[in-house]
């Protein structure tokens, strides 16, 4: 499968395109549905639970750096088309945008597998327009739905620069539970991973 990291110039061009309508100093909202829930890596002034319609959370993105390798890729969450997704939105102070967004792009757009979009997210305090990274189905990193046993096997064996893939999946499941977000599919995968982890032979 073709794989390459985006260059700094590619990330910069993508970021500038996403911010072309942003007014300097204006606060921005960022939507999180996976690791951004438990590891946002930026200071925010407000956090709300939010629902995004038209996309759902799925282990549909090959990870060949962060949670896997090119030889043994892992699976990480992305927003695939259809359904809805419960997550969180963060309000980032406008003055921090120039400093934080390059770091965000380095984290989320290392391979260009996402499409940055400004989408409406429903919260209890009203709808906000937030930056959302959705899956680019034309990317070679996109993987359609796999059989459950294959997903579990990939998650169990893969590991990358941020650690084991299984830790990423279970930490995300735990963060959702703590936030009061119910994701039945993820909860089932996390339960099966925990059960299998306890039955795997040592070493």
UniProtKB/TrEMBL annotation:
Keywords, ordered alphabetically: Lyase, Transferase
Family matches, as Pfam families: ChaC
Higher taxonomy: Bacteria, Pseudomonadati, Pseudomonadota, Betaproteobacteria, Burkholderiales
GO molecular function: glutathione specific gamma-glutamylcyclotransferase activity; transferase activity
BP GO terms, sorted: glutathione catabolic process
GO cellular component: cytoplasm
Enzyme class: lyase
Record SUPFAM superfamilies: Gamma-glutamyl cyclotransferase-like
Entry-linked PANTHER family: CATION TRANSPORT PROTEIN CHAC-RELATED (PTHR12192), GLUTATHIONE-SPECIFIC GAMMA-GLUTAMYLCYCLOTRANSFERASE 2 (PTHR12192:SF2)
Protein name (database record): glutathione-specific gamma-glutamylcyclotransferase
EC numbers on record: 4.3.2.7
């Amino acid at each position: 499968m073709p794989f390459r990291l985006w260059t700094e110039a590619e990330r910069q061009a993508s970021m500038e395109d996403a911010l072309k309508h942003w007014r300097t100093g204006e606060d921005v909202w960022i939507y999180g549905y996976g690791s951004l829930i438990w590891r946002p890596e930026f200071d925010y002034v407000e956090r709300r639970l939010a629902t995004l319609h038209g996309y759902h959370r799925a282990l549909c993105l090959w990870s060949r750096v962060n949670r896997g390798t090119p030889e043994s890729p892992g699976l990480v969450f992305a927003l695939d088309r259809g359904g809805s997704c419960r997550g969180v939105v963060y309000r980032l102070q406008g003055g921090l945008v120039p400093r934080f967004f390059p770091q965000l792009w380095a984290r989320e757009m290392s391979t260009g597998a996402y499409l940055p979009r400004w989408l409406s997210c429903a919260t209890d305090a009203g709808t906000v327009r937030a930056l959302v990274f959705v899956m680019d189905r034309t990317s070679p990193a996109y993987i359609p739905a796999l059989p459950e046993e294959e997903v579990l096997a990939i998650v169990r064996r893969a590991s990358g620069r941020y650690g084991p893939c299984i830790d990423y999946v279970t930490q995300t499941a735990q963060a959702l539970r703590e936030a009061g977000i119910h994701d039945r599919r993820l909860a089932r995968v996390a339960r099966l991973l925990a059960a299998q982890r306890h039955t795997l032979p040592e070493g």
